[in-house]
Design goal:
CATH superfamily of the domain at 276-480: P-loop containing nucleotide triphosphate hydrolases
Distance between the termini: 106 Å
Helix content: 55-70%
Shape: elongated
CATH architecture of the domain at 276-480: 3-Layer(aba) Sandwich
Number of helices: 47
Number of strands: 20
CATH class of the domain at 276-480: Alpha Beta
Largest sheet: 8 strands, mixed
Length: 1106
């Protein structure tokens, strides 16, 4: 068995490595069970283990990556210099200067560390402190400014000792800046860090710019501290080394705002939503309290889930004449003060003020304590001691210390709160209990055991990382806050944006990205508003740009980073590796790339307990996903870019190895990882395969995106003929992806490049293909003669090369402009030949096209034959096309053949069949975003509605179909849909709109020579003329004869019949001769073509002629 540590090959069954002593055991990649050395299968779940204990090559690759030398972090940098240092050196003995600076250094270190930072450097008179390195807090910028204020106060106090002798005052001047830095441990012996980044340089420049005793902060720091401090803007400064001026602000003093929730209140609270159940539970416990049954309620939830908001809503609903409310709060950097939250609440209960003098404090404390209950007098020495109020009357007994003092404090504080509650029922609440000191924690457990028979509601709020052990008290009600659902998230977003309507996809994106955390939802919503990504139009939120990814506010990132930094090192490493794999990750892959396999199970369990990840699958293999997408993003962003690149490549190779027999399932993952890993050969290969896979599933947008990446990767590979051939083929693939999306000019650009490359390497086969595709672009853009010429050239070239695929696709493309220009007999002959060639084994092959040409050809053939009135053959080819489409999963093919077959049935008057096929084609083209055929399907469905007597149903569909975007994307000329819209307007009596649309259609006929569609446009034009010029029969008559002439020349028999019918109707209305003759001609054609739908109307009109 090979040792995973040193690679030494040990004898079978060895338990420890003979070379290095490493314990040999096999961790199951599925369930994590540790199996004896040499096991081939897991004895817990049966998973096959690696043969002979072999170590995958990727594992040794990752070993050098686990011990990272640095990481990317958002940090706050504090630079502070001593003003007066030079004068002090000139005047005082160096030893005395050293003593003074040592005091400043020692105290500064204590201050910085008390606020959660580290002093990274103290050279001469300069302090460099870091906040957010190595451990992030949610409020690092605030901590940095508070630390700076304390350091300035320290130096002002020390100055009085020397300023008379040195002739100047000692003061500090400080610069603070926040931003992205790269940090690495510079010296493991003293814990100093190397830091790099613009944020560091800017912080140093701000310190140099600051006046004596000033604290200057940069713009990002200012945004994050603004609610907590009063600041004054300084003139915009041009800092050395920076191209743009920098806004800076001087900190004046702290504001009254102390917490994030208080800042939110000042900003304006959002609509309270999603916590009705929890609020009801609090009211229920309050009712029990008021009846004399003491209650303990614990409210547990991660940062941002709304604990403070819930308590705020509860507190502000209380009747203060019925209950006393006292509140204490723990502080993350005040934990060294024993009983801090209790003292905080106790002071509030005694109405002590920060402005009271020592004498006033002494007097008020005694008076207020005795007012609660005279029996509390015996505890006055303890109370005064806790409040740091000197007292000669009530000194703390000298023998009261250690365990005895602890018990005395617990008894005294508990007695004060309980006696107070006996006077008036009390709600005693403690927030942020996860930061409570040990003494406070012991005291509250003592209180819990005593409150049941007193009217006290003890409310304790904390995060899940606090280890709670409340016991099994019947008077305990735990409230666990969960994430908001989508509807509640939408309510919050509406409240932030002051709107009443939101796009559903926007709500979904915000909910999914934030995991339903209310604070995250609010912050991201505000960021979107500040960025101008949304605007309010009549109380409706409207996007101003695409929102594929949400910007992550620093406030949200800080919350997540503080959680990540509290993890143990192994859990951090596992989470970072998982973040590289993706939002979802398989345990097998993670196990393959980690060197801490024996610790992986514990790490994953720990991450699950902390709700950073969740297990989504157990069998056939364990899979996990990040609880919040933004947790993965923040974790990933901590990795250096170079490390990310290396890890992505390693993950890609691990997937190749683990899933070698079914790689197609993982093309997308491999494409992603090798692109990020900058392995350009594999990035090209897998992105191309992923693109072709997506295209086969009719996921054309995704296909285009993968193929774009593949093309970019290919360009980074060395030049060769093979590379040029790959680029040509890839550009042809791009055409196939862009074609259904209606991005015809984009794919044509790709094909033109391919044409040029094919000429360069003299590849006639690929050149012929480029001609075929470009001929298609010609007819899409109305250049039909160019399309026909190039199509004919393509056919000849393909035949000379004996290239069957190119030949059939060239003839397919050639027939299309023939149909559009009215050369229908030639079109049907060409397409009939192709349909016959693409039968049997060739019927389902794509031959390089987006659609299946055998099916598409049958669609065009049925359409052309129907225009000629050859309905029997048309229905045969339509039936074959629809049958074949059921054997392929290609939305564009299916949508087109149903639309063209539906139109063929519509031309004959088989309305029910046409409506069914066209409805299916319309729905498919809309749902699958098939923009290239949407106008065709919509126009034909509108035509069917028109024929069924429902022009009002046809109108909205037709208006959407003639939208400029869709018309530009359509492979069917605009004249077709515009003509149908014109007819709809006419049937609705909107003659002016009908005439305007029809005039546009006729102009397109004259411009592009699309005579097949133009004949129908002329027919509609004649009917409009008949409506507009009821007293001028000749005008309408000439218009009908123009349409008739065109139909006869093109041999469009169904249209000829309709022209005879409408001409007869015109004559009948004008009591002109010839009506009977026209009706007879129409009936003859209808009967010969079995167009029975129009026969009853034609026969009735004939009877009216007598």
């Amino acid at each position: 068995m090979k040792c995973p540590s040193c690679q030494f090959r040990n004898s079978a069954g060895a338990k420890f490595c003979n070379e290095c002593g490493f314990k040999l055991e096999s961790a199951c990649p599925n369930c994590g069970n540790i199996n004896p050395a040499g096991s081939k299968f897991c004895n817990e779940c049966g998973q096959r283990l690696s043969r002979d204990g072999e170590v995958p090559p990727t594992q040794s690759e990752v070993a050098s990556l686990n011990h990272t030398e640095g990481e990317r972090r958002h940090a706050t940098i504090l630079f502070s210099d001593v003003s007066g240092y030079t004068s002090m050196n000139e005047t005082l003995d160096p030893e005395e200067v050293e003593t003074i600076m040592h005091r400043i250094k020692r105290e500064a270190i204590n201050i910085v560390e008390r606020h959660g930072g580290i002093v990274n450097q103290f050279v001469g008179d300069e302090v460099l402190a870091l906040f957010g390195i190595p451990t992030a807090h949610e409020d690092d910028p605030v901590r940095a400014v508070r630390a700076a204020i304390d350091i300035h106060s320290l130096v002002r106090r020390l100055s009085s000792e020397v300023e008379d002798r040195i002739g100047t005052k000692l003061r500090m001047h400080t610069g603070i800046n926040t931003g992205l830095v790269v940090s690495h441990m510079r010296d493991t012996r003293n814990g100093t860090y190397g830091i790099t980044g613009d944020a560091v340089n800017t912080g140093a420049r701000l310190a140099a710019l600051a006046d004596t005793d000033d604290i200057l902060v940069g713009p990002e720091t200012h945004d994050l501290i603004a609610p907590y401090f009063e600041t004054e803007p300084r003139e915009v400064a041009t800092l050395k080394g920076k191209a743009r001026p920098t806004a800076c602000y001087r900190v004046s003093k702290e504001s009254a705002v102390r917490t994030r929730f208080e800042a939110a209140r000042a900003h304006g609270l959002t609509h309270f939503t999603g916590r009705a159940g929890e609020l009801a539970s609090l009211y229920s416990c309050l009712e029990k309290t008021l009846s004399g049954e003491g209650q303990l309620v614990t409210v547990v939830g991660e940062a941002g889930l709304g604990k403070s908001r819930l308590i705020y809503e509860f507190r502000h609903s209380l009747n203060r004449s019925q209950v006393t409310v006292l509140q204490g709060r723990c502080q993350s950097y005040g934990t060294s003060t024993p009983y801090f939250p209790h003292i905080n609440a106790f002071r509030r209960g005694l109405n002590l003020s920060e402005t009271d003098t020592p004498a006033q404090l002494h007097e008020k404390t005694i008076a207020n304590i005795l007012a609660i209950d005279p029996s509390l007098e015996k505890f006055l020495p303890v109370y005064l001691h806790l409040l740091s109020i000197p007292s000669e009357a009530y000194p703390l007994p000298e023998n009261l210390h250690g365990r005895e003092l602890t018990l005395a404090i617990q008894e005294a504080l508990t007695a004060s709160f309980i006696f107070n509650s006996n006077r008036t029922p009390m709600v005693l609440m403690f927030e942020d209990w996860h930061w409570a000191d040990d003494a406070s924690d012991g005291l509250i457990k003592h209180m819990v055991s005593l409150i049941a028979s007193h009217p006290m509601l003890l409310l304790v709020i904390y995060r899940p990382d606090y280890t709670a052990s409340w016991g099994n008290w019947s008077h305990h009600t735990p409230l666990i806050l969960n994430a908001m659902d989508r509807q509640n998230c939408g309510d919050i977003v509406k409240s932030v944006w002051h709107v009443s309507e939101l796009p559903e996809e926007m709500v979904g994106l915000i909910h999914d990205q934030t995991g339903g955390n209310p604070f995250f939802v609010e912050e991201i919503s505000r960021t979107l508003m500040e960025e101008g990504a949304i605007k309010n139009e009549n109380s409706k939120a409207v996007l101003t740009r695409s929102l594929k990814k949400l910007s992550l506010p620093n406030t949200v990132e800080a919350v997540i980073r503080s959680r990540l930094d509290r993890l143990d090192r192994h859990s951090q490493d596992s989470l970072r590796l998982a973040s590289v794999i993706g939002l979802e990750f398989a345990r097998r892959i993670l196990e393959q790339i980690t060197t801490s396999q024996e610790r992986l199970s514990n790490s994953l369990e720990n991450l699950k307990l902390l709700e950073l990840i969740q297990q989504t699958q157990v069998v056939p293999e364990a899979e996990y996903m990040f609880k919040h997408a933004i947790t993965q993003e923040v974790t990933y962003e901590t990795l250096l870019k170079q490390k990310r690149k290396e890890l992505h490549a390693i993950v890609g190779r691990a997937i190749e190895e683990l899933y070698a027999e079914r790689l197609e399932e993982y093309y997308e993952m491999l494409a992603y990882h090798f692109r990020r890993g900058e392995d350009w050969d594999k990035a090209f290969r897998y992105n191309r395969e992923a693109g072709l896979k997506a295209q086969a599933l009719s996921a054309y947008i995704e296909a285009q995106q993968f193929l774009e990446v593949a093309l970019d990767a290919l360009k980074k590979l060395p030049g060769s003929r093979a590379r040029v051939e790959q680029e040509i083929d890839l550009r042809f693939n791009m055409r196939s992806a862009l074609f259904p999306l209606g991005r015809h000019d984009d794919w044509a650009d790709h094909v033109r490049v391919a044409e040029s490359l094919a000429k360069q390497i003299e590849d006639k086969h690929r050149l012929a293909n480029s001609y075929v595709y470009l001929s298609g672009h010609h007819w899409i853009r109305g250049r039909h003669q160019d399309a026909i010429s190039l199509g004919e050239e393509s056919v000849l070239l393909a035949k000379s090369l004996r290239n069957f695929s190119v030949e059939v696709t060239a003839k397919l493309h050639l027939g299309i402009p023939l149909l559009y220009t009215g050369q229908i007999e030639r079109q049907t002959a060409v397409h009939r030949e192709v349909a016959e060639q693409l039968s049997g084994a060739e019927a389902l092959k794509r031959h390089g096209l987006t659609t299946v040409p055998a099916i598409t050809t049958r669609g065009y053939l049925a359409w052309g034959l129907a225009e000629l009135g050859e309905f029997e053959e048309a229905q045969m080819w339509a039936g074959e096309g629809i049958e074949l489409s059921g054997k392929v999963k290609n939305f564009l093919t299916t949508g087109f053949v149903k639309a063209s077959a539906g139109l063929a049935f519509l031309r004959k008057g088989h309305l029910n069949i046409a409506l069914r096929l066209l409805s299916e084609a319309f729905t498919l083209s809309r749902n699958a975003d098939l923009q290239s055929i949407f106008s065709f399907a919509a126009g034909s469905l509108g035509n069917a509605y028109l024929l069924s007597g429902r022009p009002e149903a046809a109108l909205p569909i037709l208006i959407e179909a003639v939208d400029r975007h869709y018309l530009n994307s359509s492979i069917i000329p605009p004249i077709y849909t515009i003509t149908v819209l014109s007819e709809v307007y006419r049937r609705l009596g909107q003659i002016r709109d009908a005439a305007e649309a029809c005039d546009k259609a006729v102009r397109l006929l004259e411009q592009n020579g699309e005579r097949c569609f133009g004949a129908w446009a002329l027919f509609t034009h004649a009917k409009i003329q008949s409506e507009q010029n009821r007293n001028r029969v000749e005008t309408a008559e000439h218009a009908f004869w123009d349409a008739m002439k065109s139909a006869k020349e093109l041999k469009m028999k169904p249209l000829m019949a309709h022209c005879h019918l409408e001409l007869g109707r015109l004559y009948l209305r004008a009591t002109r001769e010839g009506a009977r003759k026209e009706f007879e001609h129409a009936i003859d054609i209808y009967r010969s073509l079995r167009m029975r739908f129009w026969l009853p109307e034609a026969e009735e009109l004939l009877r009216r002629t007598g």
